Amino acid sequence: MPRSADIYVSTWTELQSQLYEGSWQSDLKRFRSPFAFRGLPDATAEPETSLRRLGGQYHLREQSLLRNFRKYAHSRNIQADSVWNWIALAQHHGLPTRLLDWSFSPYVSLHFATVNAAEWRCDAAIWCVDCVKLKQCLPAKLQKALKQEDSDVLTVEMLDRTAPTLGAFERLSRRPFLAFFEPPSLDDRLVNQAALFSVTSRANESVSDWLHQHKRLFRRIVIPARLKREIRDKLDQANINERILFPGLDGLSQWLTRYYSPAPEP
Questions:
Q1: Is residue 110 part of a domain?
Q2: Of 234, 147, 223, 217, which is closest to residue 5 (Cα–Cα)?
């Protein structure tokens, strides 16, 4: 069923126009998009954290997951002993957390929406969240931190100063909220993917439910299945692929395997 925030495109040109809609900043006299992007290969899917997808009493497992990750992870993997560094590192390596991956790059989001040819038969969606408007929904302390740094998204350092623990983060507001922060540059993968994370104020908060309650903050660009093949080929020619986004031999092998595989039947 169509949603009020849905925008349907039918061509590559229309897609480009919508991805960069609202990017002109008159005060800066530059094209700088205010959106964070997340690509989903199935348009019927909703953005949810890996912790929430665990099911059951998942929110009660967060502390145990992070405590044991911190215990067994090698100390050289972390830049500073900060809960925000640890949870970013955990998310980056696949541990279920209340974080969710996004990107400043619309093309990176397109990559994840089209990389799997087995999912070319269904429509895809690019979720676009306005980080500038979202600031107005943040607790006062976080808004103050952003204003002091003249920034639209938080950093680990800002979070350390305002909420050094997840409990302190939850206590910043009685109302649930969603915030974006830039992770530390743990490796080239995060850097090349122009990565940022969303974080829910509560472990059991649904990202999609919160967004649907704040419809003015986001829009979805729905991509028809028939357009995925063209998008994928054009992204490869633009050098948006596994070799770039996952630097190293694993990413190189994934790219070569996909690139030289027979094209699936339309």
A1: yes
A2: 217
